[in-house]
# Entry
Amino acid sequence: MNSKRLPGKMLKVIGVKNLISHIIDRARKINLKSNLVLATSKNKSDDPLIKEAKKAKIKFFRGSLNNVVSRAYNCCQKLNAKFFVRICGDRIFLNYREIDKFIKRCEKKGEFDLASNLLGRKIPPGKTIEIINVKALKKILNNTKSKHDLEHLTTYIYKNKKKFNLIKLKEPANFKFKYSYAIDNFDDLERSKYIAKKVRNLANLSNQEIFRLTKKWYKSLD
# Structure
């Protein structure tokens, strides 16, 4: 909630719902999930997110604001989770179908630290998919005191690839287009509101339609 570029962004209304509700709606569509958990900070500013989690009837966990690695690690320890899919709070158009497909692939691979579609080329904001082994978080906590690396969950892994067992996931469709699908600033918010006006339900919006409407928005700015 204390985003500097878009303060209070998780409760910004897009269409008929706020951002966090849209993300929860799409995350519910991941068939292979065992838990859906909101992991936020202990800061008072994030109290409204706990209300949203309770309203949505999903689990929640509160930890450090700035040490996101420890927050995620402690959350997983409490749930006795070995692996988890990371969903950032700006992923209004997360690809739940691809997540299910990648979970299946990772289950066949056995032990790994991180499976990610960011291990190849650069991809558009909001299209990242990461499946993380909790042991990898423990390794990060044991090997760095860097505030930057602890605040950004997987940065240390990408900077030290040889220390981790990685699985490269396929890049998303249309990844060559330099569009954003995340909500990071006011322009992103306006784009998402534009898309919401064009459809009945953002949770059911296909990836093809998301791309078509995103492209239409950017073209309107030319």
Remarks:
- The chain has a mean pLDDT of 94.
- The longest strand covers residues 37-41.
